[in-house]
Amino acid sequence: VGDSSVLTCSPKSNITMLVWNIRPEVGGPCTLGYRADNNLTHTNCTDSMNWKFRPNQHPALEIQQVGTAHEGNYTCETVATEGNFVATYYLTVLAPPMLTLYCDDHGNPVCKAVAGKPAAQLLWVPDSNFTLTEEGHDNGTVTVVSKLTANSANRTNTTCVVFHPAGTQSKSIAC
């Protein structure tokens, strides 16, 4: 989330035409087209999706500030002197969760991995009894909340570790 992503296709030379058909999971489809004979481009996609031209390379699709709404199928169709070629990508968007750790009103540590995609996994160190809840959000992200039980919270320092494909994080607290 938030980064730019560049999708390329067809390393073929002598491209006549190249078309990206984009079908996101959220929202309607759109198309980007390129004709080499007159260097003409066409798009009905949002401003966040556009061609990225580089010297001595074929046009690529650039998605600026990737968000969860960009997740979906991206198919590149190329017409070249060597033939017609199709490449399909499925763009999966990772949203790293924001980690918060605090003590509740009863002195129990509470760890939250807020708005991650996919849902984060939480672990307490040292290992203890805990409750775990998940809350899904409309944008496809998930908040995971873990609370240590009163019996296991009687330690001077407890660490919450959050595992996520976008990276591992940890924080420690003494309640």
Automatic annotation (TrEMBL):
| Swiss-Prot/TrEMBL keywords | Disulfide bond, Glycoprotein, Membrane, Transmembrane, Transmembrane helix
Give the UniProt family note. Answer: Belongs to the CD200R family.
Q: List this protein's GO terms for biological process.
A: regulation of neuroinflammatory response
Q: Which GO terms describe its molecular function?
A: signaling receptor activity
Q: What is its main location?
A: membrane
Q: How does it sit in the membrane?
A: Single-pass membrane protein
Q: Which Pfam families does this chain map to?
A: V-set
Location in the cell reads:
Membrane
The taxonomy runs:
Eukaryota, Metazoa, Chordata, Craniata, Vertebrata
Q: Name one GO cellular component term.
A: external side of plasma membrane
Against InterPro entries, the record matches this protein to: CD200R, Ig-like_dom, Ig-like_dom_sf, Ig-like_fold, Ig_V-set
Q: Does the keyword Disulfide bond apply?
A: yes
Q: Where is the Ig-like domain?
A: 59-174
Task: Supply the name of the protein.
Answer: MOR1B protein
Provide the gene name from the record. Cd200r1b_1
